[in-house]
């Protein structure tokens, strides 16, 4: 398929009214693009031009004043005009030598009309041609897009799309996928181009090259570039490049989606792994079969609960897992997803330094929560992160810890509670107490009267106690954080002392009270039962 290209100065010289025109300087610039034609008879023109204009003039503006003419010529060159056409005779009889040298030096075409020509007919002719060319370009672009869309339904490899792009434009096509080799269509050019081609600012493209990043899931995934062959890259080429990059992104996303579906079919084996059924050797053998270059540095499991309560629309679990995989691979993890009942577990194999695993996991989850997919599909996503597993066979321990972290976080009303099991120190102790003792009775013994007082009188004693302890007994700081005057705080503290004793800030007793407050927050969902138990005692 062949496509037309923009009008050049050389093309204009073939038009009807230029048959007797003579190029007297800047012949090497005849390939300059012409986007419009202006008739100019003034010498201050720089603020009126946008570039690529062919200028027609009779010379009346400078009237044999060489300095004015040179000034005009410099302005045209600086504004990237296409060329200057001068009608000799009435106002201009010659062109100064300095102007010829300047035009040759900048490859700026100077064209002379040796007889009178109708400027109005010239502008009408060329503008009509340009407008028709724009319509033709739109039609060609639409034709290309339709053929490209058809190919997307049948192509098996992205190289077919690259070949199609090259056949349409004729330029050298270069493609580089993150982590892969640089590919050239039709073949790698001679020279050292490509030795430094890469992502992340490592590219060393020639100045004439046009590079189009291809992004998936908000991150740069590949680069598509055109290297000019035989002519400059023009506006039409850029439009074709943009359409092709979009098509490549769709093709790559489709392949990733299919790959994710295949991974889902491996879910049963991964279930056995996460439940601790395999040895290190069996796990390593499996991973090497699927990822031969893998060098594991331990791993961690994080789990989430994707239910219907927080859904805003249709939830595509395959796309969700693909999004997670992309985000975490960018942060140095190989991710395996496992559906475990109502939970979705992710085994994150660490590929970087162990010291940074926690910050990278946290960053990945933050990016996931901020993604457009999460904002439009889920209002909330409970997440828990397990302990770091130095060996792959101990991943099951990380999984159990992640479930406990998820359970703790789902019981808490604190938005700032840590995602990580390792950081939920007191709450882990509270879980054990709740499992092997009557935790509600213990909470009631310390906090029952305070909770009952707040319920009965709509008081703020429990909130006051929390803040007062957080401020280490500083009355000034506590009053400030509670937005009350100090006299009100004194009254509340007296009330607290009547329930807890005047020694409740003594170290051991204070520690027990703080633990019970954390336990109450953990069991907040059962608060009404606690009130009922207190009322029964009364």
Automatic annotation (TrEMBL):
Pfam families for the chain: HTH_30, PucR
InterPro entries the UniProt entry points to: CdaR-like_regulators, PucR_C-HTH_dom, PucR_C-HTH_sf, PucR_dom
Name listed for the protein in its UniProt record: PucR family transcriptional regulator ligand-binding domain-containing protein
Segments forming domain PucR C-terminal helix-turn-helix: 461-519
Purine catabolism PurC-like domain: residues covered: 11-130
């Amino acid at each position: 398929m062949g496509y037309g290209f923009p009008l050049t100065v050389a093309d204009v010289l073939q038009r009807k009214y230029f048959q007797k025109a003579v190029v007297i300087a800047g012949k090497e610039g005849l390939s300059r693009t012409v986007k419009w034609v202006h008739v100019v008879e003034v010498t201050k023109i720089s603020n009126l031009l946008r570039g690529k204009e062919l200028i027609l003039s009779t010379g009346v503006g400078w009237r044999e004043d060489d300095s004015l003419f040179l000034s005009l010529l410099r302005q045209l060159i600086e504004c990237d005009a296409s060329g200057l056409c001068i009608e000799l005779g009435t106002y201009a009889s010659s062109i100064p030598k300095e102007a010829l040298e300047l035009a040759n030096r900048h490859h700026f075409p100077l064209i002379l009309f040796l007889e009178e020509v109708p400027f109005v007919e010239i502008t009408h002719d060329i503008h009509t041609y340009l407008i028709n060319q724009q319509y033709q370009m739109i039609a060609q672009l639409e034709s290309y897009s339709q053929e490209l869309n058809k190919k997307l339904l049948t192509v098996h490899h992205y190289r077919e799309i690259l070949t199609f792009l090259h056949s349409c434009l004729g330029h050298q096509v270069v493609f580089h996928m993150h982590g892969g080799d640089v590919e050239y269509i039709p073949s790698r050019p001679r020279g050292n181009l490509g030795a430094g081609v890469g992502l992340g600012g490592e590219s060393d493209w020639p100045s004439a090259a046009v590079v189009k990043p291809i992004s998936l899931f908000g991150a740069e995934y590949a680069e598509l570039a055109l290297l000019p062959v035989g002519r400059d890259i023009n506006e039409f080429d850029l439009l074709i490049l943009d359409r092709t990059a979009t098509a490549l992104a769709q093709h790559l996303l489709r392949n990733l989606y299919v790959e994710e579906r295949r991974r889902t079919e491996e879910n049963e084996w991964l279930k056995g792994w996460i439940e601790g059924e395999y040895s290190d050797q069996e796990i390593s053998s499996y991973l090497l079969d699927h990822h031969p270059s893998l060098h594991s540095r331990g791993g961690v499991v994080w789990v989430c609960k994707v239910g219907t309560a927080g859904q805003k629309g249709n939830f595509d679990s395959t796309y969700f897992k693909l999004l997670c995989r992309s985000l975490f691979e960018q942060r140095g993890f190989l991710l395996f997803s496992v559906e475990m009942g109502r939970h979705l577990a992710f085994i994150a194999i660490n590929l970087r330094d162990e010291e940074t695993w926690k910050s990278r996991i946290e960053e990945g989850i933050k990016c996931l929560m901020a993604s457009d997919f999460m904002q439009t599909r889920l209002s909330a996503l409970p997440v828990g992160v397990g302990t770091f597993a130095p060996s792959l066979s101990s991943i099951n321990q990380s999984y159990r810890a992640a479930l406990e972290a998820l359970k703790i976080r789902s019981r808490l009303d604190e938005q700032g509670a840590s995602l990580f099991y390792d950081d939920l120190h007191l709450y882990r102790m509270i879980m054990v107490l709740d499992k092997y003792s009557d935790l509600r009775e213990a909470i009631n013994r310390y906090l029952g009267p305070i909770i009952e007082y707040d319920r009965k009188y709509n008081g703020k004693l429990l909130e006051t106690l929390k803040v007062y302890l957080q401020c280490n007994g500083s009355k000034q700081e506590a009053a400030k954080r509670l937005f009350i005057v100090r006299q009100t705080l004194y009254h509340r503290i007296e009330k607290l002392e009547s329930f807890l004793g005047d020694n409740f800030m003594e170290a051991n007793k204070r520690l027990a009270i703080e633990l019970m407050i954390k336990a109450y927050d953990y069991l907040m969902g059962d608060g009404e039962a606690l009130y009922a138990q207190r009322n029964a005692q009364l």
